[in-house]
Amino acid sequence: VVGLGNYGLRGTRHSVGMEVLDRLARQLVLVKGWQVDKRCCADVALATAHGLELVLLKPRRFMNLNGLSVASAAEIYSLGPEDIYLVHDDLDKALGKVAIKLGGSARGHNGVQSCISALHSNEMTRLRVGIGRP
Predict the structure, then answer these.
(1) SS3 of 131, please?
(2) Residue-wise pLDDT tens digits, 49-103
(3) Do the beta carbons of residue 53 and residue 71 sit within 8 Å?
(4) Smallest Cα–Cα separation from 121: which of 109, 113, 129?
(5) Would you give the end-to-end CA distance of the chain in angstroms?
(6) What gap in Å lies between CA 112 and CA 121, rounded to an integer?
(7) Which of these, 26, 59, 31, 27, lies nearest to 45 by C-alpha position?
(8) 74, 63 in Cβ contact below 8 A?
(9) Mean pLDDT of the chain
(10) pTM of the full predicted structure?
């Protein structure tokens, strides 16, 4: 599960994916808490939920380069695009509204496009979190 965002700009509307992951991490039993993994340039936490082993990932890159971290983590943890869930902001959704999208285009989202390009696939499931337009 990947929280897309701008790592250095936490707390902004475009980093809502990372905020969602922080909240998810607080609700799950983490194996060790968040750890910096230099191999994929990301904060990583391992967790178990309902018998599933989860890798939570917060890339330490700007949004348009998040895919590099996601692709590295996918290789490290032997994950395919279909195993990856992206959590990201969506300007076209009203504030607080959420939707799940299975595959397809990036719809203009630079972080999603970065992941599609780095993984050579658009088959990731996306949780789109509405931030509305200013």
Answers:
(1) coil
(2) 888 899 999 999 999 999 999 999 999 999 999 999 999 999 999 999 999 999 9
(3) no
(4) 113
(5) 28
(6) 11
(7) 31
(8) no
(9) 94
(10) 0.94
For residue 108, give both structure tokens.
Answer: 């203009």
- Residues 102-122 have a mean pLDDT of 96
User: Does 29 have pLDDT greater than 90?
Assistant: no
By three-state DSSP, how is residue 73 classified? helix
Q: β-strand 42-49 against 35-37: which pairing, if any?
A: antiparallel
If you count them, how many residues does the chain have?
Answer: 134
Whether residue 109 lies in the annotated active site: no
Number of folded domains that form the chain: 1
The residue segments making up the domain with residue 70 are 2-130
Longest dimension (CA), the chain: 41
Amino acid at 133: R
The pLDDT score that the predictor gives to residue 129 is 96
Catalytic residue, chosen from 14, 88, 109, 120, is 14
